[in-house]
Design goal:
A six-stranded mixed sheet has the order 1-3-4-5-2-6, with helices on both faces. A two-stranded antiparallel ribbon has the order 7-8. By secondary structure, it is mainly alpha-helical. The relative contact order is 0.04. It has 45 helices and eight strands.
Length: about 950
């Protein structure tokens, strides 16, 4: 018989006979509800079903694709029914072959036949045994069979509630399926439940009409990652991402797909016996031409149908193939054909249809594809490399050369595969070592740590240059925490390969030297001595900014400004963006990471998208645009959750909460050590950012003393906590509030001396604003004027903070009108940037200055007259400029330098909405007329 059977549940009554399991039948692996991942809603529905079935009868169909977990959910339902005191009868269809009529029904009912303990007053049990066991029923008996089965099951359920579990209902023989459907529709009114599974497949029967269906869709990436961690732990992040992409939410694929490896030649999509039997059960019975077409499509899924048909024809020795060759695969639901492209019904189907193909046949398919593709293209050379056996140095050299094209197309995985294959095709150990080392460098840059270490160990078995050996040794020691070589002893590179190894080594080691000033200085000296043609290399700039962001900011930013616009690799843009942010240029960093995001979308590299958006959030955070920062962190978290990128998701969530606390003036929730460890992957300085953000949030929340103490501690050694340099203004605000201005001024002067001329422009502005905030009354006017002369055009948060402090100082000087104007300007900027707590504080300041305010006034909700947007000094300068006076003439009249007048006008123009002096008179005249009206 072509059905699988099981005995009655041990928790139920023992019905007479015990049927041994047929030889070769798969054992059940009952999955209790606790073992199911991502099916909480489905389990809740099953609990409701069991409750209803055990009291008044119910039926339900579980429908899903192959491997979606239907059988696991059925077992969970059986476990719930057994726990509720129900007896269980069960059977299951087996795919393939032609089952005999009523074989499924007989196996399900076999435990009941001949059991003397069951009620038999009506003779239905004896009639059923005669129909199913003694001989094939005639037409009249077959018509009575559904009613007889229903009567027997009703009698059994009257003794004890009964659950009938049917796995693969669509694979049962047709008469058995019809009888079970008949019973399911009439279960109501009796303590009888029918739980059946059926496959969602074009060739499978539709589920019985009128029965409630519980549909199983794909698991979410987060649920898939949880299942993988629970059942297949130990994979590195890249292997997890690869498995999640290939499994596409299918639980069976997640558990069965082998981790990708490029060691097997020729390349064939991975699968397993169980997965192939589930996803492509009829593939072996397809016509040979269709099987060959599916093999070619599995090896080159991006091809259109003309190329696939041509390659298949070439593989088979010639002869035209028409579209009819596609139809058998379509009828089985293996592929979807839109007239031009073939797409497999599920990513894992590609491996399932090719499972078990011999190597010789697979090489022919690769060779046929190579013959059809463009000469010297990346894909052609890849397929060509898979069609040969043994060594082929000429082909290896072509692969090594074309890997750069793959990198320019933002395909690091393909570049890595090309280099590994090139190493295998080379016969000379020197060539093998060079390719393996370059592959290790690519893997490390892409975040594939385990692969990079493995490749580095293989490379060390071949001859390498001094720097290549040093890089490979350093790479293999990273996880063990062993010491890295002192840059003072690194040899000078000779040749392009060694220079490349030097850059990779510096990029690898630089983040480890932030706490070691002597070795960091040695690394900087080493980088300065490298050839000038690599001075703007993204790896060099990232290494320089990582090792000494404070002391080399100007150099990094100057080289960033002079770089070309031909950066097309996502990873290079990310490195430059990180270097810019570390060096204190958040706007440049924001632009670079936005470029990286666009390339991620253009080249369909979704795994890099959360990191690109995350670093945009960090750039917004540094500029003080908390509203935009929180939005970016939320978007990064959502993108990471969508793709099960746990590290990026954790970092984004931590930063999102921190930014919300800053914006609303509340204390952030404490971050546990595990979350910090996970978030350090995408953001290495996460600990320092959280520490600085916590101190800042303490100030914003009103706990100024605690915030001042936190920031003072962090600024004691800014080389160890660079993010603290972007909190100098809030440090000054806190110091002024706790009457520690003198000590804070001394700390700022010391910082100014230590940072020297290489300090970042943003830090220079921070220092000027902070010193103005801390100034005593004797120096305040001069320091505020100096701070306003700084470049504040693209630093609205610093300008608003300066205006807030200046407005307070003006109020203390009893210049209430100017104070109110300045405070309103600050409030408008803070409101625009989402700094809600600061807007509230400014409202209080405005009340103290004698103005009755509401939220709209403080936040700039209503348009103010043009003159109301300017302080008294700014208004005097605007009126003089409107009369046609030059900067020098205005300066002579007011006792200010022409440069100061220019700085004032640079701020006045955008506030009044003008671009040239000639427009000033009209704007100011209109303002005067509105004021008189």
């Amino acid at each position: 018989m072509n059905t699988r059977i099981d005995t009655l549940s041990a928790a139920g009554p023992e019905f007479g006979r015990r049927i041994p399991r047929p030889v070769g039948a798969a054992d059940h692996d009952p999955a209790g509800p606790a073992r199911l991942v991502g099916r909480d809603a489905h389990l809740a529905l099953l609990r409701t079903f069991v409750r209803d079935a055990s009291s008044a009868g119910a039926a339900r169909v579980i429908r899903g694709a192959a491997g979606s977990g239907k059988s696991e959910l059925l077992e969970a339902g059986v476990a719930l029914g057994t726990a509720a005191g129900m007896s269980v009868l069960r059977c299951a269809g087996v795919r393939g072959g032609t089952p005999s009529d009523l074989s499924g029904l007989l196996r399900m009912l076999w435990p009941l036949l001949g059991d003397a303990r069951l009620p038999s007053d009506s003779g239905h049990l004896e009639a059923l045994e005669a129909l199913l066991v003694d001989g094939a029923p005639g037409r009249r008996d077959r018509d009575r069979l559904p009613f007889t089965v229903l009567k027997v099951l009703e009698s059994v359920s009257a003794v004890r509630p009964l659950l009938i579990a049917v796995d693969d209902w669509d694979a049962l023989d047709s008469p058995s399926a019809d009888v079970l459907t008949f019973v399911a529709r009439r279960a109501a009114g009796h303590p009888l439940g029918l739980l059946m599974t059926t496959r969602a497949h074009p060739t499978s029967p539709s589920p019985p009409a009128g029965l409630p269906v519980l549909s199983l869709g794909p698991m979410t990436p987060a649920e898939s990652a949880a299942l993988l961690a629970a059942r297949r732990p130990g994979h590195d992040p890249q292997a997890v991402r690869d498995l999640l992409a290939r499994a596409a939410g299918n639980p069976l694929a997640l558990l069965e797909l082998p981790a990708r490896t490029d060691d097997s030649v020729p390349h064939l999509p991975a699968s397993s016996d169980r997965l192939a039997a589930a996803l492509a059960p009829g593939a072996a019975r397809l016509p040979s031409a269709t099987r060959d077409l599916l093999l070619v499509a599995a090896l080159h899924p991006a091809a259109d149908i003309p190329l696939l048909l041509s390659a298949t024809s070439r593989m088979r020795g010639g002869g035209a193939l028409g579209l009819s060759v596609v139809e058998p695969a379509e009828r089985q639901g293996l592929v979807v054909f839109d007239g031009m492209r073939l797409e497999f019904g599920h990513p894992a189907v590609a491996g399932a249809v090719a499972h078990g193909i011999g190597r010789r046949h697979c090489r022919r398919a690769h060779a046929a594809l190579a013959a059809e593709l463009t000469r010297d293209s990346v894909r052609r050379l890849w397929h060509l490399s898979q069609s040969v056996a043994g060594h082929d140095p000429r082909l290896a050299a072509r692969l090594e050369d074309v890997h750069r094209s793959a990198l320019r197309q933002n395909e690091p995985a393909m570049a890595l595969r090309l280099l590994r294959r090139a190493a295998a095709l080379y016969s000379a150990p020197d060539d093998q070592g060079r390719c393996l080392l370059r592959a290790a460098q690519l893997a490390q840059g892409a975040g594939w740590a385990r692969t990079s270490r493995s490749l580095a160990r293989h490379a060390l078995d071949r001859p390498l240059g001094p720097l290549g050996s040093l890089y490979a040794e350093t790479l293999t020691r990273l996880d063990s925490g062993g010491p890295t070589a002192d840059p003072a002893g690194w040899p000078r590179p000779v040749g392009a390969t060694e220079t490349d190894s030097a850059l990779e080594l510096a990029h690898l080691v630089a983040p480890l030297l932030t706490d070691d000033r002597e070795r960091a200085d040695a690394l900087l000296a080493y980088l300065d001595a490298l050839p000038s043609d690599v001075a703007r290399d993204p790896r060099l700039l990232h290494a320089m900014a990582s090792a000494a962001p404070v002391r080399r900011a100007a150099t990094v930013l100057a080289r960033l400004a002079s770089r070309g616009s031909d950066i097309v690799a996502i990873r290079d843009l990310e490195r430059l963006g990180e270097a810019a942010l570390r060096a204190g240029a958040p706007l440049e960093a924001l632009d670079l990471h936005r470029q990286a995001e666009r390339l991620c979308l253009f080249h369909d590299v979704p795994d890099r998208l959360p990191a690109a958006v995350l670093w945009q959030g960090l750039a917004h955070l540094v500029t003080g645009d908390w509203g935009q920062a929180e939005t970016a962190f939320r978007r990064s978290r959502e993108e990471a959750e969508r793709r099960a990128l746990s590290d990026e998701g954790v970092a984004a969530e931590i930063l999102e909460r921190l930014t919300r606390a800053l914006r609303t003036g509340t204390l952030p929730e404490p971050v546990d050590a595990g979350a910090l460890a996970s978030g350090r992957g995408p953001v290495s300085a996460l600990d320092e950012i959280v520490a600085v953000g916590t101190g800042w949030a303490q100030v914003e929340s009103g706990d100024v003393a605690a915030g001042h103490a936190t920031l003072t501690r962090l600024l004691a050694d800014p080389a160890r906590c660079t993010p603290a340099l972007f909190a100098l203004v809030v440090f000054a605000e806190a110091a002024a509030a706790v009457n520690a201005a003198g000590t804070a001024r001394a700390r700022l002067l010391s910082l100014e001396r230590d940072l020297g001329p290489e300090r970042a422009p943003l830090v220079a502005v921070e220092l000027a604003v902070a010193q103005a905030i801390l100034a005593d009354d004797g120096q305040a006017a001069e320091l505020y004027e100096r701070a306003f002369r700084m470049d504040l055009a693209h630093r609205p948060f610093l300008e608003a903070s300066l205006r807030l402090a200046h407005g307070r100082w003006l109020r203390r000087q009893h210049e209430f009108t100017d104070s109110r104007v300045t405070l309103r300007q600050a409030a408008a900027t803070f409101a625009m940037m989402g700094a809600e707590a600061r807007v509230t504080r400014i409202t209080e300041e405005l009340r103290a200055s004698g103005q009755r305010t509401d939220a709209s006034t403080a936040g700039g909700g209503r348009p103010a007259p043009a003159a109301g947007l300017l302080s008294a000094q700014e208004l005097r300068i605007a009126r003089l400029a409107a009369r046609g006076l030059s900067n020098r003439q205005i300066g002579e009249e007011l006792g200010l330098s022409p440069r100061t007048i220019g700085a004032y006008l640079y701020r006045i123009f955008p506030r009044l909405g003008v671009t040239v002096r000639a427009q000033l008179s009209g704007v100011l005249r209109s303002a005067d007329e509105r004021a008189e009206a």
